Amino acid sequence: MPLVILKTNGGIDFTTPKGNISLRGYCLLNEVSDNELAELKKKDLFNSMVKDRYIEITNSKAKKEDSDNIAKDVVKEQLEKQNSKTKDIKREG
Q1: Dihedral class, residue 64 (left if φ above 0, else alpha if ψ from -120 to 50, else beta)
Q2: The pLDDT of residue 8 is above 60
């Protein structure tokens, strides 16, 4: 069963074989169709934000606090990556 990502008001619901997990307050991805999901899986955004966390999320009995922490970690990692890329560009310029 594929990972299905649903955009919710202020968060994401992951529908997994083990049930639904909500990441509230972090709209990382929009609602996607099967075709869009297949395309997303090829992209770095999906891989870096979601795919690496998928097993961790589905294998734990995630409580709301756990899923919020995972979401915060994902967002923090992305911000750090963006900041480091910006610094690299400034150095080269």
Answers
A1: alpha
A2: no
Span between the terminal Cα atoms of the chain, in Å: 46
pLDDT the model gives residue 84 = 73
Helix H segments across 1-93?
34-41, 44-46, 52-59, 64-92
Query: How far apart are the C-alpha atoms of 84 and 92, rounded to whole Å?
Result: 12
Task: Report the amino acid identity of residue 11.
Answer: G
CA–CA separation, 71 and 88 (whole Å): 26
Of 54, 65, 79, 56, give the one whose Cα is nearest residue 2.
54
